[in-house]
Design goal:
The complex is a heterodimer of chains A (about 475) and B (about 100). In chain A, about 75% of the residues lie in helices and about 0% in strands. Chain A is mainly α. By secondary structure, chain B is mostly helical. Chain B has a single domain, classed as Helix Hairpins. Helix content of chain B is about 75%, strand content about 0%. In chain B, helix 1 (about 5-25) runs antiparallel to helix 2 (about 30-55). Chain B is elongated and about 50 Å long. The chains are: A mainly alpha (about 475), B mainly alpha (about 100).
Amino acid sequence: MNDLVLMGLEGAVLVTGLAVLLLDLWITPDQRRLLGFGAIATLGVIFCASFAYLPDGTQYAFGGMYALDEFALYFKRFFLIAGMFVLLLSVGTSHAEEGGQGEYLSLSLFALAGMMFCASAANLALLFVSLELVTVTFYVLVGFQRRRLASLEAAIKYLIIGALSSAFLVYGIALIYGATGTLDFRQLASLPAAVMESRILWLGALFLFVGLGFKMAAVPFQIWAPDVYQGAPPSTTAFLAVGSKAAGFVLLLRVLHQTLPVLETRWLHLLMGVAGLSIAYGVLCAIPQRSLKRLLGYSSIANAGYLLIGVATLSAAGATAALYYLAGYLYTVLAAFIVIAVVLQHTGRDDFDSLAGLHQRSPLLAAGLTFAMVSLAGIPPLAGFFGKFLVLKAALAAGAEHPGFYWLLGIAVVGVVISLYYYFGVVRAVYWGTPGEQPAGPIRVEWPLQVALYLAMVAILWLGVMPNQITNLAELAVKSLGLR
Amino acid sequence: MTPGLEHYLVVSLLLFALGLLGVIIRRNLLVIYMSLEMMLNAANLALVAFSRFNNNLNGQVMVFFIITVAAAEVAVGLALIVALYRQRQSAHVEDLATMKL
């Protein structure tokens, strides 16, 4: 019984998903929106309930399969907020999407539950199953507009690359199990040093990293990101950009620091290399892009690089920075995708030309997109700036021990400078772009989307001006991971 | 001669490599998907062999999870491939090139 209580948050999300799926059968189409609002309100209640959990150290459930600590709770709250925004976004744009609103909501909720399980995984079996729950539901969510070829094409690309990465993940798990004889994180952590030297274990861990790298969209596992971001429905893309990426990071941090601490030294160069390559690739490839969603796809690769710098420092400061960075990135990306969803609905396109004159058609959307781009570019006082500042500060501190971090720092700073060009290209298109012949009437934004956009903008500003509250939470989370 | 752990592992690695090769060089989505399943089953074989020689059942339990998840993945994947076939009357990777740059 105690086990079920510990798992209550995920359980509640799963029950909500099933309830939405069933209720959808009996209600009339006009009531669909109410169903969506009901689901969002339930997630809000679950979010508040998460503060009732006060784990004293780490609590385990189901024979050590499932761990609940401050670290897991931080990410659960993160995923719940992301889920609420995504549901709000999908309710606000529902009439544009063909049919199946109830299915879309419940699939999003199942993906959310999968992400929350990822945050608590303490066994390679749960790691695999929760990661697959996220991935398989995203196959459907990406291809949800199945009569639109782009959506379908994106889904198939995601399917092939996703299945390939899970094959590597599974083989990695098999090799780790072969070398150690256990799947449990606590038993893995307490193995004697002689076992840790095993080459099979090393190879297995590398394969595991392939699986996680795919979720994080880090180079060289990034190949799917731009196409999938461009083709998927905007609410799915937003969820993919924040939720799926964070699921990769939560597992990476847990495996790195709690499960196989021996990897910390072995993976140092790997993590640094992947971080540098991700930033360089994402930033350089984003320059010629004309589609906003595709641009954000490349930007998400670059952001994975910045997050990985924080992880690679292997310090509490670096991990805290990464956690804060993710929180800022969450609101920034959500604000951007709310605007993109509305613009897509009205113009049917998401390239820079369709943004021209947006500040006249809807000042709110223009302001929201500008906020998101300025935050992504890392301009103070918004959240994006402080996230990058913390990550680079941690890298500077780690540079004293390992000079390679100075190179990484250089790449990161050059990346920020180059990214100013394309982020401000978007802002320029919004305010100074020349509209074509298309009739440019004012865009009416539905109230759920207005609320979501205002909330996201306030959060971006609030996180940037008052970072302490989130960094305190992040520090608490990192401390429970055993990092000093 | 009774087959030892290394025999099982060699077969498993061969299956994995063949699957990977299939994913890389084949052009038909269904064949690619079949190759992916073969990679998953290579991992299953390795898990069962390790389970036998490690003398505990964790690996076998893991195999059940993998089989179940793979079944769900195949259901979704085939549905997507069929949906694509209905639109394009083809299941070749060359037809997946509308998004570029």
